[in-house]
Amino acid sequence: MIPKYIDSVQVKEILTWPLVNAAVEEALKAIDYSERDAANSEQSYKQQPSRTITTGGNASKLLLTMPGYVGNYNALNAKTNNDQLHCSSTLACKVVTSFTNNQNLQPPLPNILANVLLFDINTGELQCIMEGTQITAWRTAAASIVATKYLYMKRFPQQFQTPIKLAIIGCGVQGQSHALGMCATFNVSEIYLWNRTQSKADDLALKLQKLYLQNSMKIFVTKTPAEAVREAAVICIGTYSPNALINYDMLKSGDVHINTVGAGAVHFGEVSQDIYDNAVVYVDSLINARTELKDLKANIIGEIGQVIREDRRTENKCLTIYQSLGMAAEDATVAQAVYNAL
Ligand SMILES: NC(=O)C1=CN([C@@H]2O[C@H](COP(=O)(O)OP(=O)(O)OC[C@H]3O[C@@H](n4cnc5c(N)ncnc54)[C@H](OP(=O)(O)O)[C@@H]3O)[C@@H](O)[C@H]2O)C=CC1
Ligand SMILES: O=C(O)C1=NCCCC1
Questions:
Q1: Where is the signal peptide (predicted)?
Q2: Domains of the chain by range and CATH?
Q3: CA dist 263 to 239, 310, 338, Å?
């Protein structure tokens, strides 16, 4: 079998926030293979060994291999356009590079470049190679959206309709997809954008203005991260900053939720220690957290998937963090949804 190649144009045509959010929620809530209940064969489950990280000469050049299997999960059928769910299983492997000098090239390239390999579940044959750069941008934001939905929105009687003030710290690829995804999914009343190089925040503000012309959403570009988060109830931060960009004193009191997705070589650091000291922390994958977050001093309660499965509530007036590492199961379910739609 000659594998199909699905390029970024085809991928982009299929991706929508409802499709990606639903696929990522399935990946998050699938139970870990080792904890699967043998009596419940209907249960969705996943197996994703720790990813490998290979250095390509120096720490600015990384290659990550991310294999994953998700079994018995509900996949949206984008083709039928009627939100019909069907049971699906997917075996996939994402290969992704993080080359932090790419943005300085002329013309610049994204720092994160990815491809997802999808395998035939019966024969193991390689079915397709799918350009995965967009998938990485969208699925990471979608995981933060799902985390915000379950850790923050559920605290309010109006749930997902609750108006929120949102801060985006870092307006690179991740910042943009978080801003676009959050605004497409939730009732964002005010959005505050900060980026080290202000022109990127200005460009994102223009894009949002065009998209939400008819809407009463207020858009602000701020000079400092502190100004951006002062009023914010939900904060998304995705940068390569090795130093904390926000600290506890900058936050408003009461209900605040932070999605932190970046920091480069280690998966934390853009948020200060005093924020972790005052927060309850959830992750996407505890298996990966054990290795990749081993030096993080934080009260890690568990996985977002457990919160979804057990319909747990976080307390009101509490500071929550979703610490995103990125996991193969998300890439698998999103790539499968794209493949099914073509
Ligand atoms: N958890 C997950 O699943 C994933 C995590 N990531 C991580 O997300 C982060 C962002 O990735 P991505 O958006 O693709 O990268 P981009 O290169 O598109 O954006 C990088 C952003 O970081 C900012 N930045 C870099 N250094 C600093 C600094 N010292 N202080 C303040 N801001 C800084 C840049 O600002 P400027 O514009 O001024 O350069 C830019 O806003 C990375 O750490 C990446 O590893 C990425 C994919 C998935
Ligand atoms: O999950 C991913 O994909 C990535 N995570 C960390 C940075 C590189 C891409």
A1: none
A2: 4-135+330-341 (3.30.1780.10), 137-327 (3.40.50.720)
A3: 6, 30, 29
